[in-house]
């Protein structure tokens, strides 16, 4: 059975991700206590199902301790289990809760050492939830949704889930340093030292996927040199990631605005590695 487990911080988009999986044909269950996961899998197999998606979070904190063992058991039984941990910056989470006017799931939860009459602030709830779920991160592929709209998150999750099973999926993503480092990056490369098409009036409105920008960057030897260095570095260490039983490795390429140089480099690198590996290419700053 194909099993996708969605977990992570409240407000990071778990419900959106679950809806994507439901549209893809998965039987979806939200807020399932982890202690019931194996029983649910067994039930769905008896019913002839082949795909299951489950979302769990800090609302089931008391039974999260068994999750690691359950995942290992399911994999040992031959099930294909993918785990995604969705997260976002505190500022993004606070903004989302403010916009939706929803309370945090932990706002009514009594934490050890707290007066029952004291409600946690939103900031305290987020900090407490990060602490509760911290041990799950090493079980999962981390997806930082800080800069994602709902539509972009849907596209991202769909791409991750629909990729055919392979020893490792290589994800190249461009980003803007002015918006901060992506939290889900395994390797980060800075390409801000390269010639910037932004200062060419004709190239400024274009992106690194447009041919005039490609021609501009192709004309500089230092661009080709940096491309070769990054390509060789990733190629050298990719077997080690595979030996570490990674499912995904995220290579983030950053420039100032995330529009020209980083997009160009990510696309070129993705094109190169597609010849031998399963590759996804994404651009955080582009619609």
TrEMBL record:
<feature type="binding site">
    <location>
        <begin position="8"/>
        <end position="15"/>
    </location>
    <ligand>
        <name>ATP</name>
    </ligand>
</feature>
<dbReference type="InterPro" id="IPR053931">
    <property type="entry name" value="RapZ_C"/>
</dbReference>
<dbReference type="InterPro" id="IPR027417">
    <property type="entry name" value="P-loop_NTPase"/>
</dbReference>
<dbReference type="InterPro" id="IPR053930">
    <property type="entry name" value="RapZ-like_N"/>
</dbReference>
<dbReference type="Pfam" id="PF22740">
    <property type="entry name" value="PapZ_C"/>
</dbReference>
<keyword id="KW-0547">Nucleotide-binding</keyword>
<dbReference type="InterPro" id="IPR005337">
    <property type="entry name" value="RapZ-like"/>
</dbReference>
<keyword id="KW-0067">ATP-binding</keyword>
<protein>
    <submittedName>
        <fullName>RNase adapter RapZ</fullName>
    </submittedName>
</protein>
<feature type="domain" description="RapZ C-terminal">
    <location>
        <begin position="169"/>
        <end position="286"/>
    </location>
</feature>
<keyword id="KW-0342">GTP-binding</keyword>
<dbReference type="Pfam" id="PF03668">
    <property type="entry name" value="RapZ-like_N"/>
</dbReference>
<feature type="binding site">
    <location>
        <begin position="57"/>
        <end position="60"/>
    </location>
    <ligand>
        <name>GTP</name>
    </ligand>
</feature>
<feature type="domain" description="RapZ-like N-terminal">
    <location>
        <begin position="1"/>
        <end position="158"/>
    </location>
</feature>
